[in-house]
C-alpha cells in the first residue's frame, strides 16, 4: 500500500523512493532518469518491463562490500533464474562482479552464450536426469553441486574423479514473513539437498566413484529480512556441522535468499549483520564463502508498467483494471510478495482512496492489490509495479494467450543515480 509517511532511501518521498526511482519535478515517475509513463506510451501501451542496469551493479557492489569486510575470500554468483533477459545478463558479465548460478542445462548454455566461462558457473539442480548429466560431462569446468544420492551415483559413473559440491538440507527454512511457501527446508521434508542422516552415505558414494567433495552448498529460503536473521544464523550454524564432518571442505556456498522491502513496514536487510553471521561461523574455519543472490540483485532494479483500461465501481468496491495479470509476475499472487502499484504520473486529482487492482486474466486469483490507497485514476493512465525485476518476466506464461510483453535495459540519464 502506498504510504507517503514512510521515507525512501534518500529520506524523502514514499518508502520505495530512492535517487534513481522517484517522481521528478513534473510529477512523472522516473527510473534512472527515464520517464516511465512516456516510454510506455511510446511503446503503444502494451506491458513493458524496465530495468536499471546501474542499480544492478550497485547491488552487486553492496554484496561484495559486506563480504569483503569479513576478511574471508568470497565469490558471488548471480541466480539467473531470477531474470535471464539477454542484455541484462550480458551487462552483468561485463561488470566482472559475479559468476552465474545455473539450475538447468539450458541456463548453463545460455550463460555461456552471454560470455561467462565454465569456471564462472555454479550449477545446482534438482531431479537431475541422465540427459542433464551428459551436458555436465561436456562442461568439466562447471562447479557442480549434487543435491541427491542419485545424482552423486550417476554423475560419478559418468564423470569419475570430478570435483563436486554437496547440497545439504539442515531441516530449517528462512523466508520473507516466515512464509512456508518460500522455505526450502523446515519440518516438512523437502526435495532439496541431502539431510544429515544421509550425509555419510553421500560421502561414501562420492568416495566410491572417486569424486572429490570440496564444497558444501545450502539454500533454505527466499526474501529474508531483519526479523528472520536469528533463524538464518541457526541455519548457518547447523550447516557448519556438514563442513566439519566432511573434512577437506574449501568452499561453502550459502545460496541466495537475501530479501528487500516489499511494503512500507519492511526494513531493508542489514548487510553488515548478515555478513557478521557468516564471519562468526565460517571465519574460524578459513573457507571461501560463496553466495548466489538473485532477487536481491535484480528485483528492485525493475518496474513493470501497465495501462489502466477499466475504472469502475462494483457494489462498494472501486476496481482498476490493467492490461496485464499474474502471468506476467506470479509472485504477488502465488507467494504473497507484492509489487507496489505506483501511478506513472502524480496527478493532483483528489485524495487517495482504496481501490482493487485487477489484471486481465480470467481467474479469480488475478488481483494485483486489494484495498490499496491510490489517487483517482482514469482509463488510459499508466501504473508502475515496483519490485518487478526478479521472478516476473522469467516466470511469465502465455496463459489466456495474454503473455505478450517487452523488456528494456536502461542506463542513467540526466544525472540520475544508481
Automatic annotation (TrEMBL):
Residues 57-298 form the Orn/DAP/Arg decarboxylase 2 N-terminal domain. GO terms for molecular function: diaminopimelate decarboxylase activity. Gene3D superfamilies: Alanine racemase, Lyase, Ornithine Decarboxylase, Chain A, domain 1. Keywords: Pyridoxal phosphate. The keyword RNA-binding does not apply. It holds the Pfam family Orn_Arg_deC_N. Coiled coil: none annotated. The keyword Nucleotide-binding does not apply. GO terms for biological process: lysine biosynthetic process via diaminopimelate. Its cofactor is pyridoxal 5'-phosphate. This is Diaminopimelate decarboxylase. It comes from Candidatus Sedimenticola endophacoides.
Amino acid at each position: 500500500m502506498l504510504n507517503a509517511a514512510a521515507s525512501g532511501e534518500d529520506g524523502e518521498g514514499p518508502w520505495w523512493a530512492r535517487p534513481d526511482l522517484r517522481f521528478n519535478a513534473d510529477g512523472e515517475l522516473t527510473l534512472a532518469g527515464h520517464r516511465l509513463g512516456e516510454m510506455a506510451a511510446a511503446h503503444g501501451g502494451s506491458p513493458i518491463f524496465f530495468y536499471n542496469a546501474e542499480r544492478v551493479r550497485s547491488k552487486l557492489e553492496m554484496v561484495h562490500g559486506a563480504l569483503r569486510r569479513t576478511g574471508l575470500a568470497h565469490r558471488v554468483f548471480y541466480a539467473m533464474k531470477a531474470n535471464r533477459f539477454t542484455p541484462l545478463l550480458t551487462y552483468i558479465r561485463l561488470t566482472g562482479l559475479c559468476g552465474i548460478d545455473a539450475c538447468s542445462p539450458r541456463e548453463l548454455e545460455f550463460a555461456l552464450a552471454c560470455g561467462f566461462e565454465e569456471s564462472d558457473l555454479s550449477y545446482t539442480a534438482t531431479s537431475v536426469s541422465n540427459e542433464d548429466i551428459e551436458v555436465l560431462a561436456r562442461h568439466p569446468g562447471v562447479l557442480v553441486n549434487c543435491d541427491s544420492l542419485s545424482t552423486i551415483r550417476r554423475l560419478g559413473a559418468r564423470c569419475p574423479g570430478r570435483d563436486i559440491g554437496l547440497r545439504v538440507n539442515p531441516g530449517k527454512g528462512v523466508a520473507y514473513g516466515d512464509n512456508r511457501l518460500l522455505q526450502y527446508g523446515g519440518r516438512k521434508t523437502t526435495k532439496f539437498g541431502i539431510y544429515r542422516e544421509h550425509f555419510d552415505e553421500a560421502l561414501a558414494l562420492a568416495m566410491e566413484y572417486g569424486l572429490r567433495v570440496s564444497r558444501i552448498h545450502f539454500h533454505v529460503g527466499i526474501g529474508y529480512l531483519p526479523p528472520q536473521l536469528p533463524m538464518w544464523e541457526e541455519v548457518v550454524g547447523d550447516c557448519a556441522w556438514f563442513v566439519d564432518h566432511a573434512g577437506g571442505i574449501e568452499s561453502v556456498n550459502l545460496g541466495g535468499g537475501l530479501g528487500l522491502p516489499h511494503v512500507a513496514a519492511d526494513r531493508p536487510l542489514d548487510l553488515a549483520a548478515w555478513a557478521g553471521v557468516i564471519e562468526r561461523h565460517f571465519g574460524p574455519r578459513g573457507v571461501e564463502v560463496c553466495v548466489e543472490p538473485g532477487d536481491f540483485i535484480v528485483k528492485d532494479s525493475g518496474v513493470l508498467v501497465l495501462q489502466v483500461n477499466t475504472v469502475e465501481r462494483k457494489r462498494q468496491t472501486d476496481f482498476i483494471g490493467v492490461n496485464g495479470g499474474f502471468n506476467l509476475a506470479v509472485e504477488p499472487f502465488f507467494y504473497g510478495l507484492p509489487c507496489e502499484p505506483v501511478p506513472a504520473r502524480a496527478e493532483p486529482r483528489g485524495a487517495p482512496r482504496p481501490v482493487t487492482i485487477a489484471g486481465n486474466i480470467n481467474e479469480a486469483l488475478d488481483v494485483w492489490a486489494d484495498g490499496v490507497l491510490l489517487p483517482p485514476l482514469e482509463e488510459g493512465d499508466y501504473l508502475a509495479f515496483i519490485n518487478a525485476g526478479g521472478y516476473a518476466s522469467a516466470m511469465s506464461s502465455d496463459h489466456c494467450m495474454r503473455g505478450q510483453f517487452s523488456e528494456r535495459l536502461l542506463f542513467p540519464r540526466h544525472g540520475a543515480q544508481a
